[in-house]
Amino acid sequence: MSNIGEKIKSLRSDIGVTQLQLGEYAGCSGQVISNIERGYTNPSAQVLIKIAEFFHVPSDYLLGKSKSQWIALDPETMKPYIDVRISELLAQGGLSPEQLSETADIPQEELSGILAGSVTPNIDILAKIAKALNTSMDFLIGSVPYSEMISSEEEEDIIRYYRGMSKRGKRLFMGALENLKDK
Questions:
Q1: What residues form DSSP beta bridges with 122?
Q2: Which of 11, 51, 124, 126 has a CA 20 to 30 Å removed from the CA of 109?
Q3: 3 state DSSP class of 122
Q4: Which pLDDT tens digit goes with each residue over 119-168?
């Protein structure tokens, strides 16, 4: 599937939910869902979060940034704090808001509003910020607690395999990784 609208329509059709029902859950109208599915508009970050939550998939999957439909944590337990997470990543990377504005090609005034928590970025802006900060949109919206982005199917396979291991197996695996790192 090539776009967010097609993925949402497919997920919605698979479980027999109407556009109106999805819209009610996401806090918008059925017409907005229809427009998203037909590619006329993109959802706001808030609507994207609710749609991803409804289908229990990462927002990065809906956006085509990830092939994985699997979420490790229940999004209900995580609260999105876009402004806080962006500020933390700026501090960790030693970047100024001005540098992020330039790198992400976002107007400084808009970024200032996002960092102040008074502006909610749309998904296009959120994607630019995530790319500039080398993180996932799921981290920025609070769906996952890890800022590191899985960049290949191999990394995703390793993580899935690790999560299926016993506690002892995980300890042995981590010890082997430490030994490999030192070589």
A1: 44
A2: 51
A3: strand
A4: 878 878 888 999 899 888 878 877 666 677 666 777 777 877 777 888 88
CA angle 79, 82, 86 (to 5 degrees): 130
What is residue 16's three-state secondary structure? coil
Residue 24 near residue 86, CB atoms below 8 Å: no
Residue type (1 letter), 107: P
Nearest to 48 by CA among 65, 30, 62, 34: 62
Q: What is the largest CA-CA distance in the chain?
A: 58
Tokens linked to 51: 């749609």
Nearest to 112 by CA among 128, 101, 123: 101
Under 8 Å CB-to-CB from 24, ≥6 apart: which residues?
30
Distance (Å) of CA 36 to CA 5, 8, 48, 74, 161: 5, 8, 10, 25, 35
Q: Are 49 and 143 in contact (CB under 8 A)?
A: yes
Per-residue pLDDT of 72-114, as tens digits, reads 444 333 335 788 889 999 998 899 999 999 999 999 999 999 8
Rg (CA), the chain: 18
Amino acid at 95: L
What is the torsional sign of CA 58, 126, 24, 40?
negative
Give which of 121, 136, 132 is closest to 62, Cα–Cα.
136
